[in-house]
Structure formats: structure tokens, C-alpha cells
Amino acid sequence: MEGLYFYWLAWMGWVWTTFFMNKNNPLRLKWSVLLLAVILAAPYTADVVNIEIHLSALAIGLFIFLETRQKKTGSLLYLFLSSFIIMLAYTSFLLFELFDPVWVLFDRNIMLGAAGFYLAVLLHKERRDRILALISGFLQGDILFSAILWKFNFPYPAASMAFMDILFISLGLLLAWAAIESMISVMSGSTINQVEGEEQKTS
Predict the structure, then answer these.
(1) Where, by residue number, does the polypeptide cross the bilayer (predicted)?
(2) Least-confidence region, from 61-65, 106-110, 131-135, 187-191
(3) Scanning 29, 108, 125, 166, which has the fewest C-beta atoms within 10 Å of its C-beta?
(4) Contact 31/13 with Cβ under 8 angstroms?
């Protein structure tokens, strides 16, 4: 069932940001509104320049604009380049899958989600930039793939439920990786403090 991963992960995220996130966290309201807007808009579509697009793409596009408008030129340029790389990877995967689907060995959603996660981690160190590059790269890639198929008279709605499945699997992997990184950082910090304490005692 298309949209299963998306609805499952998006509702989990919304419940967490709305009811469990620290109320003083400035990201709480932003993430709650974004997740709810994407969930509500996802089933509806509109035609934009002859391409059918799910309205969740507009909510995601608005979020990317608001998050990147205050970035410095160098940072914005690198974000553009990294999202461009992810876009090419996403579109290439779909085209190869279309012409030669034999090499897709297991669930395509998980394969594409894992590829996007790997590229985002490889291209950015900051958690926020990874998320922005991944979302914008995937969205642009899906719109590009839809435009390519439209030229051959194959209808392909952009930002469909299948796309949202892939996007949220990749975002889920990114958040899990961020939690692992934080855990390793805390554990290494406590180990260093313990070693320093023992050295002070012996001296």
C-alpha cells in the first residue's frame, strides 16, 4: 500500500513534536505545522505547467524556502550543489529502474531511501543541512522525472504517496543516525571525563 511508511512515520513525528518535544524548543511549532500540513495536503493534486503535482510538494517547497532564505551565499551555493547531486541520483535510479528493473533486488523504497540517506550524510556534517539537501534533492528529482515522462506522454504525478514513502524512510534513517551520533558523543565525553578524573587522582 503506497503511503503506508509516510503516514506511519509522519504521524509518529507529529505526535512526538506536538506532545513530547520541549515546549521551549523553537523548532517544535515549525515541525508540528509542517508535518500536519504535509499530511493533510498529500492526497490532493493540482496541475502545474501540465505536470500533476501533489499539494504536499508545495508545503515542502515553502518549508525549504523559509529555511534557506537567511543562509549565506557560500552555504546556500553548497546546499544547492549537494541537493543537485541528490536530485541526479534520484532521477537516475528511477530511469534505470524504468528501463532495466532487474537490478532492483529488494524493496525500491528502502533502496532509494538508503541511497538518499547515504548521500546526505556524505555531503553534509550539520543535521539541518542534511535534511534540507535530502528533501530538496528528492523533490526536484521527482519533478524532473515527472517532466521527462510527460515528454513521452506517460503520466507520473510528482510527490505522490510512493515518493513520500521514500522521502520519509530516508528522513527516518537520518534521524536515527543523528541519535546514534549524539549517543556516541555523550559516551565519548563521559569516558574522557572519567579518564581525566583518574589522572588527577593519581597525580
Answers:
(1) 6-22, 29-45, 51-68, 75-96, 102-124, 131-152, 158-180
(2) 187-191
(3) 125
(4) yes
Q: What is the DSSP string of 132-194?
A: HHHHHHHHHHHHHHHHHHHHTT----BT-HHHHHHHHHHHHHHHHHHHHHHHHHHHHHHHHHH
| pLDDT at residue number 202 | 64
Q: How far apart are the first and last CA of the chain?
A: 65
- The helix (H) or strand (E) run that includes residue 3 is none
Contact 182, 176 (CB under 8 A): no
Determine how many CB atoms are found less than 10 A away from the CB of residue 202.
Answer: 5
Count of all residues that appear for the chain in the document: 203
- 30-53 pLDDT, tens per residue? 889 989 999 999 899 888 877 889
Find out whether 57 and 158 touch, Cβ atoms under 8 Å: yes
Nearest CA among 108, 94, 88, 80 for reference residue 170? 108
